[in-house]
Write a structure and sequence with these properties.
The chain is mainly beta. It contains no helices and eleven strands. The chain has one domain: Sandwich (Jelly Rolls).
Length: 109
């Protein structure tokens, strides 16, 4: 397992190979990742604990423990820990560098 600290929390890479990547992400209350999209990466999110707010294009949807959503390439999205700390799994295709940031609260490029 590889742990990577992020300004919004941290992610743990549980498995990565040529076909898929599985991460466990912890997002702290009041934090959010970049507003972003991927050209090729497809990801499925499974909420393990807490409530995850996901901004999808122009919609904001709250997902609860046990909820699942798949985000296709080119869909603009952002995850937010709006209601407390949240832990979720991200299972995706393995294009880990395929991140196009539109807006970032932490000034990352």
């Amino acid at each position: 397992m590889i742990k990577i600290d992020k300004p919004w929390g941290f992610e743990e890479i549980l498995e990565t190979n040529d076909n898929y990547t599985v991460k466990r992400l912890t997002m702290y209350n009041g934090h959010k990742c970049s507003l972003q999209y991927h050209n090729y990466k497809k990801e499925t999110i499974y909420v393990l604990s807490g409530k995850l707010c996901i901004h999808l294009n122009d919609k904001e949807i709250t997902y609860n423990e046990g909820d699942i959503i798949t985000i296709d390439p080119t869909v603009i999205h952002r995850m937010e820990g709006k209601f407390g700390d949240v832990v979720y799994l991200e299972c995706s295709t393995s294009q880990l560098d395929d991140v196009i940031r539109i807006k970032d609260d932490y000034d990352r490029k």
